[in-house]
Amino acid sequence: MLSVPWTRTVPPDAADGTYTVMVGRLRPRSRRGLLPVLVWAARMRPVLARTPGAAGHTIGVDVVRPAVWIVSAWTSRTALSAFDHGGMHRSAKVDLRTVLAPSTFAVWSCPAGALPPAWDEVRDRIDAVS
Predict the structure, then answer these.
(1) Is 94 exposed, middle or buried (0-12, 13-18, 19+ CB in 10 A)?
(2) How many helices (H) and strands (E) does the chain have?
(3) Per-residue model confidence (pLDDT) at position 29
(4) What's the number of domains the chain is made of?
(5) Number of C-beta neighbours around residue 60 at 10 A
(6) pLDDT tens digits for 18-68?
(7) CB 111 within 8 A of CB 29
(8) Residues in CB range of 83: below 8 A, 6 or more apart
(9) Which residue blocks in 10-118 are alpha helix, DSSP H?
(10) Residue 22's beta-bridge partner residues?
(11) Which structural domain range is residue 18 located in?
(12) Which DSSP state fits 90?
């Protein structure tokens, strides 16, 4: 899997306490569908960097079994929910609706010291809800 480095959006000295982690596996209906998903992911990265409550994020791409993996950490479940229902994210969900097969998501809490989650844990969390 190809991935971008974890981007921390909370200063290191503020990184204590418990965070909400959300992972998603987005599977395009065809290989051609990877491109629009990656374009939206690239557009989201700078938005996440300035979104209140976002603590960090990364994306990974599996080209063998086409999927885009999204991982983000939040200061609270409320902050995650606000982003999920926000304008740009809502637009992405509408735009990608016809491109994506049903996606799989997992959400859990973890201490600051466990960020970023390892890719093995991300896969295990998704497998547990699949």
Answers:
(1) exposed
(2) 4, 6
(3) 96
(4) 1
(5) 19
(6) 999 999 999 999 999 999 999 999 999 999 989 999 999 999 999 999 999
(7) no
(8) 48, 51, 53, 54, 74, 89
(9) 34-49, 77-84, 87-96
(10) 72, 107
(11) 2-129
(12) H
**Tokens 């479940």, residue located:** 77
- pTM more than 0.90: yes
Which residues lie below 8 Å from residue 8, measured CB to CB, with a gap of 6+? Answer: 15, 55, 56, 115
Q: Please identify which residue in the block is written with the tokens 């600051």.
A: 112
Read off the tokens for 56. 């960090």
Amino acid letter, 66: P
* Alpha carbons 32 and 76: distance in angstroms, whole number: 35
Alpha-carbon distances of 91 from 87, 112, 122, rounded to whole Å: 6, 30, 25
- 116 prior amide bond cis, ω within 30: yes
CATH code (residue 87): 3.30.70.100
